[in-house]
Structure formats: C-alpha cells, structure tokens
C-alpha cells in the first residue's frame, strides 16, 4: 500500500525514510495520507466452455476435441504477495466419451491352460465396452520374454519351436503389436483367436517391456487424445530392474519407442477409473496451491484428500475449490503458467499467473522531475527515485561532491558525538530514522531524537490509553491530565449518593476521593465504620416526638429540634425508595418489645421523617389452649407410660412361662432312689436251707 501524492514533504515527517510511505491503510490514514493506492489481485476467466451434457443415444456424434469434461479451461490470475485468489473447477465424466483400449496378452507357455479363456476375455471386453460408448477402438498385442539367454533357449531348434517336439509353438519374442487400435471388432476377434503359445525358460516374463512400448509408441499403436485403457493379461510375475544383467543387458530402458514392423527390437540391450485426482505442474518459487474437494453425497475434503474424489461414475459431476497464494514477487514483469489436470485424462486447465510487484502509480512516473532537485530523479508515487550517482530524499546530493565527514556533521544534535541519536542513518546530511519491528512504533525528528513509544505508562498502557506519545511526552486526550494521562478531570466518580462531592468530607483528585475526615473512607467518603446508623441515631427522637415515650421523652422539646415527624396510618403509606433519591427505611423496637417504623430523608437541606402511628406489639398468650394442651399432654403421656408398662409385663410373663415349659420338658425321675418307694415283692430265706 503506497501513499500517492506529488507533495513529497507534506506527508513524511522529519527523519522518516521514503519507505515509510508504504504501510497499512489505517496507519497511512492516521498519519494524514490524502490518497492511498492499494492494488488488489483478481481473476479473469479466459476460456469457459461448459462441461458436455449428452446421452449415448446416437443423436449427436462429437469429436474428442468437442467434448469438455473440466471447466473452466483457462484463467489469468493477478497475484499480490500474501493475498489468496480462489476459483472453482467443475469436473464431469462425460457420457459416451471416446475410449481407446489396448489388450496386451501373455503368450508364454505357462498361459497354455488359460489361452482359450484369455481369448474369450478379449472378445467379451470389446462387447462390454461397446455398450459403454459408441466411439470405441480396440487394439491387441502380445509378449513373451527377453530374447537372450538365460531367459530363452538360443539353440536353433528352440528358436523355431521353444516347446517340446509334440507341441507346435511360435518362436519366442519380447513384444509384438498384433493389431493397432481399430473400430473393426471382427478383425480383433479373428486375430485373438489365431494366437499361439510360445515358450521361455524362467518364470518371470517381460511384461514391463511390453507395457513401456505400448505407452510410448503412440503413432504405431494409434492412440488418440481420449481416454486410454490398457488391459494386461498374465499369470506370472515380471522382471525387476537389474535382472537384465544376467543376459548381458546393462543399459536401462530409455523410455522410447522401438517397434520395427510391429516388433519390439530392443528387448536385448483397466477398469474405467472411478477416482478423479487433480495434479498440477511445477509451481514457481514462492507460490503455493491448495485444494478443497466437494464430492458426491456432500462429502468435502481438504489437504491431500482435497485433490481427489472417489466413486465417480459416468455422468457424475464434482467440484474443486482451488486457492493460489504468492509469498513474494518471484517474476517481476513476467508471467508464469501452471497447468492443472485430472490424473489419467488429457484435458487440462491453464492458469496464467501475473504478479503485482509495483503500484500503478509507478507507471505514470515523471522522469527528471523538477521536484527531484532540478530533475535529478524520477517522481514515482510521490517519492523520488534518484538517478545514478544522486542520493537524498529529493536527490539533492551527489555521492562525489560532499565528503562523508561533512555530511555526518549535519546529523549530530548539539555538536554531539552520536549520529542521528543512534536511531538512524545519515544520508546526504539528513537523518533517516530506523524502522522498528512494530510498525506502530517509529523514530522521528531532525536527528531521530524523538519517538512515539518511550512515554510514561499507566496500567501497562502507553499514556494510560488516554493520549498520544509525541517525542517521548504524552499529549493527553480531553478530560485527562498527568505525565501518563492517568488523571481524569471528570469528577463524576467522586459524587456521593447524597449528591455531594466526596460526601462533603473530602476532595476529588484525579477522579479519586481523598477523605479529609479520618472517620470516613471509601471511594466517595461515605463509609464510616465507627458511626452509628441513621436509624439508630434518630430512634430516640422519633420515639419521643411521635409516641411521647423513650429515653428522651422528658427532654424531647430541647433535644429533638432538627425535624418534626409526619404521621401516617400504615407502612404502605411511607415514602418508597424510588420516590426520593436519598431515603432510608427504619424498623426499631421500644422497651415494650413493640416495633415502630419510620423513614429518614434529606431534601433541599431539610430533613423529612415519616412515622407509622401504630405500633406493632406482640399479642398476649391464649391461656385456655395452653392449659388444655398441657392437660391433654399429661394424659397422653400417662396413657403412653401405662401402655409401655403393660407391654413390658406381657413380655416378661411370656418369657417366664417359656422358661417353665422348658424346665418341665427336661425333668427326669429316678425310682431307685425314691425314699418312699417300696417294692411289692417279699423274699423269705429258709433257715434250714444249706445250699445243697
């Protein structure tokens, strides 16, 4: 961004270099720039043919170059450093798009069992492709092996028939283009059915040699600039790089076509894609590109996945957002071209990049302008670009005319030793101040002695956030003062709730109250921890004036002269808080435990006190309910105790009875020991009996 004006000295301050004219828009406007030139990048679509929409119904026959699958086809971008330019690419798989398919068959001896299936496969492929597109061509080729030892036998008999004597095989070969691409399906079927097996010695085959020739021999194969398909049919592996050394082949494949009479002469020295991947050519230095894909079913991807969409069928349409950014100006005055194309397709998008390296005002510069010291420079964008050998802000000095010592003397303040106060460089006897890393900070002055960032701070803000730093001194905004602009002149923060400045007990300094009465404190000198409250202070006077009672009832007339209470009947009749600005509601208790209510307010230097004339006294106790409740309580307690005693006795009796029953069951009588027991049997001994 550059300031455009012919008044060179009107914008730059003393000490500022010409580069200070290039800055952010807000910074230029804050410094009084009258006109800002701010070139922006843009996108121009040069070629924008819509993607082709047609059906495979034979109603229209289009040539390949008449079918469009990607849109737009060419764009021109103007890139400014750091500014991103975005555009969208639309891709659609065209229906009935021309297709060239080449069928590459392995004819080594190991394919003998599968030869008939492979032949049929080629025919089936041709019929299937003809149902997909009406513009279809098919070709056919075959391969065996490298034609040197030890891959094949080089004896004369084996070269004629590499198979056993009872097998009739064709001579070995590396690759043969049997049929170039053609629309004649019958000829394809005939040639495929006539193929014969050949033979080789090792298991890997020369398939990669054949694939290379099919890819690079476009003229012999007959490839068109349409979708190209290669169907590769084999049952064996392939040779790796370096395998050819066994046969004395030391040169790598050169990637060129070597077909003579449709035969590969240098062997001795799919399904339709369902994924769309965008690729781009090499980017110029400092240019980056990114992709965002918008695929089927609302799926979007970024990063590496932003380049591709999967599961794309014929007729499907997808969208890619492309963003290109330049970090600098890699090619001043030159254009760069990059190409974006879907991988595997021949269509591409050409993107021409033009870089904005200068403002437009440079083109209208005035050579040898009289504003540049009698024509010693070109006036461009309000600044002088000096001719060779001239220096200075307006090219006023010659490098050869003035010695460096003389120039430096003009850059020392007060004959000091520091050149440009060590904050700049002496150019042509004039100080050009250094730039700071922070674009908001700058050195100024004839000797770069001033700056806008070394002023006093408050609350970690330069000039308290209420002023500007000019030559290391704060210039305060309105209503602020002090060295750091931290002293507000507004006294509103000092106003107390009674409308007085600092409650009449202090002074307002820099928006803060300085309390002169030591009993008071707080931001507005309204807090007094040792002072009684308004309600407690005026309780006794309200009590004696309104109710003729209280501690001051005998001296009420002489003590309470400051106000006269206004009686109201109910509490609801008292003034409400929003009716007066400074109002206090009070609730106090007298000696009889009765409550009385009043309000205290100051208005126009007078005191207003409203008092509710009825006291709220606690009601006396109702004796009958108390006595009845007491008697009922005693009776209930007696009944409860009686029931508890009865329950305990029942439990005790049941336990004793159970104990008796248990002892009764355990009792046993021993009849042999019963003292009152007498047997019914009497025994008499014969005295004459001698036991004989």
TrEMBL record:
Stored Gene3D superfamilies: 4.10.1240.30, Cytochrome c1, transmembrane anchor, C-terminal (1.20.5.100), Laminin (2.10.25.10), ntegrin, alpha v. Chain A, domain 3 (2.60.40.1510), von Willebrand factor, type A domain (3.40.50.410)
Domain (Integrin beta subunit tail) ranges: 535-622
Gene Ontology terms: cellular component: cell surface; focal adhesion; integrin complex; lamellipodium; melanosome; ruffle membrane; synapse
A Gene Ontology molecular function term of the record: laminin binding
Family, as annotated: Belongs to the integrin beta chain family.
PANTHER family registered for this protein in UniProt: INTEGRIN BETA (PTHR10082:SF62), INTEGRIN BETA SUBUNIT (PTHR10082)
Subcellular locations according to the entry: Cell membrane; Cell projection, Invadopodium membrane; Cell projection, Lamellipodium; Cell projection, Ruffle membrane
Protein's recorded name: Integrin beta
């Amino acid at each position: 961004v550059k300031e455009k004006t012919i008044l060179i000295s009107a914008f730059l301050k003393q000490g500022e270099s010409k580069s200070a004219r290039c800055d952010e828009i807000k910074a230029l406007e804050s410094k009084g720039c009258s006109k800002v030139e701010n070139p922006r990048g843009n996108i121009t679509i040069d070629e924008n043919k819509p993607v082709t929409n047609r059906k495979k119904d034979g109603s229209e026959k289009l040539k390949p170059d008449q079918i469009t699958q990607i849109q737009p086809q060419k764009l021109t971008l103007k890139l400014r450093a750091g500014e991103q330019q975005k555009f969208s690419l639309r891709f659609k798989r065209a229906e009935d798009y021309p297709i060239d398919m080449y069928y590459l068959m392995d004819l080594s001896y190991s394919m003998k069992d599968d030869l008939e299936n492979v032949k049929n496969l080629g025919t089936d492929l041709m019929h299937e492709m003809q149902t997909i597109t009406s513009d279809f061509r098919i070709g056919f080729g075959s391969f065996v092996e490298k034609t040197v030892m030890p891959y094949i036998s080089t004896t004369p008999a084996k070269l004629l028939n590499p198979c056993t004597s009872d097998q009739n095989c064709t001579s070995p070969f590396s690759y043969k283009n049997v049929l170039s691409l053609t629309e004649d399906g019958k000829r394809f079927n005939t040639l495929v059915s006539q193929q014969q097996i050949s033979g080789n010695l090792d298991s890997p085959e020369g398939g990669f040699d054949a694939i290379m020739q099919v890819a690079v021999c476009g003229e012999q194969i007959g490839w068109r600039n349409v979708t190209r398909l290669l169907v590769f049919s084999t049952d064996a592996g392939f040779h790796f790089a370096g395998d050819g050394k066994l046969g004395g082949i030391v040169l790598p494949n050169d990637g060129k076509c070597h077909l003579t009479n449709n035969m590969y002469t240098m062997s001795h020295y799919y399904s339709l894609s369902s994924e769309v991947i965008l690729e781009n050519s090499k980017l110029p230095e400092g240019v980056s590109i990114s992709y965002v894909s918008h695929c089927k079913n609302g799926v979007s991807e970024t990063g590496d996945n932003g380049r591709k969409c999967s599961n794309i069928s014929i007729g499907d349409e997808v969208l890619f957002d492309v963003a290109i950014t330049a970090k600098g100006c890699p090619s001043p005055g030159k254009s760069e071209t990059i190409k974006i194309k879907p991988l595997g397709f021949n269509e591409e998008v050409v993107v021409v990049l033009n870089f904005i390296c200068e403002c437009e005002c440079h083109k209208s510069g005035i050579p040898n302008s009289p504003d540049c010291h009698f024509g010693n420079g070109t006036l461009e964008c309000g600044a002088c670009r000096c001719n060779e050998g001239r220096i200075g802000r307006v090219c006023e000095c010659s490098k050869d005319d003035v010695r460096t010592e003389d120039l430096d003397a003009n850059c020392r303040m007060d004959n000091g030793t520091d050149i440009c106060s060590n904050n700049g460089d002496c150019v042509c006897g004039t100080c050009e101040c250094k730039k700071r890393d922070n674009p908001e900070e700058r050195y100024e002055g004839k000797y770069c002695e001033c700056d806008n960032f070394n002023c006093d701070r408050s609350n970690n803000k330069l000039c308290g956030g209420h002023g500007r730093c000019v030559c290391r001194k704060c210039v305060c905004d309105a209503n602020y003062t002090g060295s750091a602009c931290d002293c507000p002149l507004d006294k509103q923060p000092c106003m107390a709730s009674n409308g007085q400045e600092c409650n009449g007990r202090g002074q307002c300094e820099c928006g803060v109250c300085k309390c002169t009465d030591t009993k008071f404190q707080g931001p507005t000198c309204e807090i007094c921890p040792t002072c009684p409250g308004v309600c407690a202070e005026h309780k006794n006077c309200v009590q004696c004036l309104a109710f003729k009672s209280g501690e001051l009832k005998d001296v009420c007339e002489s003590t309470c002269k400051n106000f006269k209470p206004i009686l109201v009947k109910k509490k609801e009749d008292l003034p409400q808080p929003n009716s007066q600005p400074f109002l206090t509601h009070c609730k106090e208790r007298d000696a009889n435990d009765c409550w009385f209510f009043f309000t205290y307010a100051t208005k126009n230097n007078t005191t207003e006190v409203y008092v509710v004339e009825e006291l709220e006294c606690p009601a006396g106790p109702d004796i009958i309910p108390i006595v009845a409740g007491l008697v009922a309580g005693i009776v209930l307690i007696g009944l409860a105790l009686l029931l508890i005693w009865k329950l305990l006795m029942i439990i005790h009796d049941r336990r004793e009875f159970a104990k008796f029953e248990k002892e009764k069951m355990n009792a046993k009588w021993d009849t042999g020991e019963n003292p009152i027991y007498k047997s019914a049997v009497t025994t008499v001994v014969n005295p004459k009996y001698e036991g004989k």
